[in-house]
């Protein structure tokens, strides 16, 4: 499968004057799933602690192992569910599974594609398991919202077969590459690893700055946490200070995330094929602070303002929440590893169907048309 998407080409054309450039934008419908060789392994992700998914999960696994003869990977904690562990009829299928543990086992080079059973959270979780290239993801709507899960499970056999045969369209959902640099340490740790001079802790040169990296599909949220004070953070774009956010916080989202928390905070909704990053304030203390869209590929950096009264907190797709202190920094840019999401029909129709069905976008009661008598009465005025 092709791992990258060409956003546009810059080409010369014989009918265009010399030194003139023509921009060619790729048709989203041309993104098709292609296999270099038939897929042999599949990762099945099931929403944990949801009894309603047990039957679909077992039916899918039986189909994949016995009818499609595929290697099925399942997270170890899924099989620890008593309803699965104690099911003797499911035992022969379960013995054929390959298991893994999050944050312990690397399966990035062993999976051909992913099937998610649940809501949008399962797709976000699948994204978090792969910090580099992500296999194509087929998501079934078995959760509460289903904006990112276009497939219905009723005829899963036919749909899964089409994907295995390469008969499907793709939408490449961009991710954010995030790096958190931690410089803050408490006094006890600082005394152990640094030098105290005139009551001030001087960081030891031998101790490196702690850096953590994340791949984010929806959004990075920086907020004030439990503090009663407004958050006060500086936002830099390619090294230049563009604004200071004073309010409840700020959301940095992908186009996929523009229909999530950012939409609730007043942002516009962006199709996932649009290469962009959205910056949305959360309850800003300024009436003129509107959400903005910046080009994909720029580097954003968020830090506490020097005069901030309190720390801030950051989370990544709603996970890994942690405190941000003075001196810490959060660097954000577009990742080169998108999530290839398999479409039910195509990227455009799937997206608008989700807007209508899940968010009820522009749903209203229609006006009745005029009768002939009413049209005549209108014409008299």
From TrEMBL:
Pfam families given for it? NAD_kinase (PF01513), NAD_kinase_C (PF20143)
Q: Does the keyword Phosphoprotein apply?
A: yes
Catalytic activity entry: NAD(+) + ATP = ADP + NADP(+) + H(+)
Gene3D superfamilies, alphabetized? Probable inorganic polyphosphate/atp-NAD kinase, domain 1 (3.40.50.10330), Probable inorganic polyphosphate/atp-NAD kinase, domain 2 (2.60.200.30)
EC number of the protein: 2.7.1.23
Cofactor dependence: a divalent metal cation
Q: Keyword annotations for this protein?
A: ATP-binding, Kinase, Metal-binding, NAD, NADP, Nucleotide-binding, Phosphoprotein, Transferase
Listed GO CC annotations: cytosol
Q: Enumerate the Gene Ontology biological process terms.
A: NAD+ metabolic process; NADP+ biosynthetic process
What is a GO molecular function of this protein?
ATP binding
Q: Quick check: keyword Secreted in the entry?
A: no
Assigned protein family: Belongs to the NAD kinase family.
Q: What is this protein called?
A: NAD kinase
Source organism of the structure: Xenopus laevis (African clawed frog)
Q: What is the lineage of its organism?
A: Eukaryota, Metazoa, Chordata, Craniata, Vertebrata
């Amino acid at each position: 499968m092709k791992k990258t998407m060409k956003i546009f080409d810059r080409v010369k054309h014989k009918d265009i004057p010399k030194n003139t450039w023509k921009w060619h934008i790729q048709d989203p419908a041309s993104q098709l799933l292609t296999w270099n060789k038939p897929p042999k392994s599949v990762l099945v992700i099931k929403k944990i602690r949801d009894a309603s998914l047990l039957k679909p999960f077992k039916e899918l696994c039986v189909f994949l192992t016995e009818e499609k003869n595929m290697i099925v990977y399942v997270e170890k904690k899924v099989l620890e569910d008593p309803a699965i562990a104690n099911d003797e009829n499911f035992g022969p299928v379960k013995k054929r599974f390959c298991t893994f543990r999050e944050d312990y086992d690397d399966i990035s080079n062993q999976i051909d594609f992913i099937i998610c059973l649940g809501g949008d959270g399962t797709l976000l979780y699948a994204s978090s398991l792969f910090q580099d290239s992500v296999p194509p993801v087929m998501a079934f709507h078995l959760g509460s919202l289903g904006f990112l899960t276009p497939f219905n499970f009723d005829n899963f056999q036919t749909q899964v077969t089409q994907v295995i045969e390469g008969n499907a369209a793709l939408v490449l959902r961009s991710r954010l590459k995030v790096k958190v640099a931690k410089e803050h340490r408490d006094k006890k740790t600082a005394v152990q690893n640094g030098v105290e001079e005139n009551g001030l802790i001087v960081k030891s040169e031998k101790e490196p700055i702690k850096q953590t990296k994340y791949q984010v599909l929806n959004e990075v949220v920086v907020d004030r946490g439990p503090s009663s004070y407004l958050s006060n953070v500086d936002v830099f774009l390619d090294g230049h200070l563009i604004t200071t956010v004073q309010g409840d916080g700020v959301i940095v989202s992908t186009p996929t995330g523009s229909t999530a928390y950012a939409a609730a905070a007043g942002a516009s909704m962006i199709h996932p094929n649009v290469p962009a990053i959205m910056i949305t304030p959360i309850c800003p203390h300024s009436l003129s602070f509107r959400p903005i869209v910046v080009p994909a590929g720029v580097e954003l950096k968020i830090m506490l303002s020097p005069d901030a009264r309190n720390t801030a907190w950051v989370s990544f797709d709603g996970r890994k929440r942690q405190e941000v202190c003075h001196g810490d920094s959060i660097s954000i840019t577009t990742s080169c590893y998108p999530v290839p999401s398999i479409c039910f029909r195509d990227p455009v129709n799937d997206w608008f169907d989700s807007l209508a069905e899940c968010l009820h976008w522009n749903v209203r009661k229609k006006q009745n048309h005029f009768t002939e008598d009413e049209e005549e009465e209108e014409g008299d005025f």
